[in-house]
Structure formats: C-alpha cells, structure tokens
Amino acid sequence: MLFLAVFCGFLAENQREHYVEHKRAKDYAEMMKDDLLKDTAQLGGLMRGIENLLQAQKNKELLWQISTDKITWADIEALRNPRVDVTPFFWNDATYSQMKSSGNLRLFRDKELIKKIALYESMIKGFEFWNKSIQEFLKSDYYFRSEVNEETFLKNNPSIDKSKSLKTLGYNFDAWSESNIIGKNIIGYQLGLREDYPHVNKIAEEIISLLNKNYHLK
Fold it and tell me: How far is it, in rounded angstroms, from Cα 155 to Cα 137?
C-alpha cells in the first residue's frame, strides 16, 4: 500500500509538472507569435519603401545617362521623385532572447519548430545587415549634400530657365557625381533585401502556423 501511495504521488507530481511546463510553453508561444506578427508587418512596410527607393534610383540613373553639358532643370523635374522614407526594421526578439538565455527553448518539444526558429534567427540577422546598410546611406553626407545642393541651386535661381543647360547656370555637379557613385552601390543592398524578403517572411509564417497547431492558438 505504501509503495502504491508513493507511486501515485509520483505520477501526480509528474502530471502537475507536465501541465505547468505546457502552460509556460503556451504562454511563450503566444508572445513569440505576437513578436512574429509585428516582424511581418514591419517587413511589409520596409519592402514597400525599398520598392519606392529602387524606382527613385532607376529614375536617377536615367538622369545620369544625360551628359552634364546638356542636362536641364526640365530633365530633373521630369524624373524627380518625392523624398523616399524607408522605415528602419527592428527585430522583435524579446521572447526568443528570453527563452534562449533562460534555457526555456526546451519547452518547445517540436524539433521542426526549433529548427525553423533557428533558421529565422540566422536569416533575420542577414536581413538586418542589408537594412542597416541602407539606413546608413540615407543618413550619409553624400545623400545629404545631393539634396542640399538642389535646394541651394533653386534658392539662388528663383526664376530659372528650365530649358537651359544646368552647367551654364552654375549648377554644382560634384555632389551629383558622389550621389551617382553611392547610389549605384546601394542598389545592391536594396536588391539583397528584396531577394531575402520572401524567404524570411515565409519562415515567419511557417513558425506561426506551427505555434498555432502545437498550442491551439487563435
């Protein structure tokens, strides 16, 4: 009888521990899902900005194909782009970091889920690199000087003859050349982001699907 009582107590304690761990895993799953939903929303907004930036860059390339001896303000206006804002991406990794540092990733028993989370971490860090590079370009002196150069030129030439060559009107093409060189380099970063985006987004959606399935999330 004593053995039976001890055995039943062991089973009850084991069941209670299993319940507690499952409850903690579900809480973490809900928080991680929320982080991933924030990530995917951010990524979508970022990619819309990148597409606008790529289009703006294509228009600039058309301008750069025109000789500086011939280009006019009318040419610039025809291909001018509104200022493009690219919202920085910040990985919502609070839940993942907490689970990883505390050893609580073990609460997720699904090996496929763990593999996809590790893959997502690797891919999102690469994505952050591309994004950081673009943000640095948008804050760079080259980009700033190019914009200031145009503003200064317009201020000094309020009644500009748009059909005349900018060179004859005293336009400073130094900043233009800098913007040309840096702009061509940054296209590579933009294309890198656009190429990585579908893969990162797909992994995030797959993790959310597994979290929903394993922990009956809505």
Answer: 26
Task: Give CA–CA dist 204/164, Å, rounded.
Answer: 53
- Per the CB < 8 A criterion, the answer to whether 205 and 40 are in contact is yes
What is the spatial distance between Cα 202 and Cα 120, in angstroms, rounded to a whole number? 10
Q: What end-to-end distance do the CA atoms of the chain give, in Å?
A: 46
Q: How do residues 29-68 score in pLDDT, each as one tens digit?
A: 999 999 999 999 988 888 888 788 777 777 777 777 777 7
Virtual CA dihedral for 121, 123, 128, 130, nearest 10 degrees? 170
User: Phi and psi at residue 160, in whole multiples of 5°?
Assistant: -65, 140
Instruction: Give the contacts of 50 (CB within 8 A, at least 6 positions apart).
Output: 86, 134, 190, 193, 194
Is the CB of residue 57 less than 8 Å from the CB of residue 187? Answer: yes
β partners of residue 72? 165
Q: Residue with structure tokens 């130094």? A: 174
Q: For residue 184, what pLDDT is reported?
A: 67
Kindly state the tokens that stand for 73: 């303000």
Return the closest-CA partner of residue 208 out of 41, 87, 89, 49. Answer: 41
Spatial separation of the C-alpha atoms in residues 108 and 106, rounded to whole Å: 5
Among the residues of the chain, which ranges form H helices? 2-64, 73-78, 94-102, 111-138, 141-156, 174-215
Structure tokens at 14: 């084991």
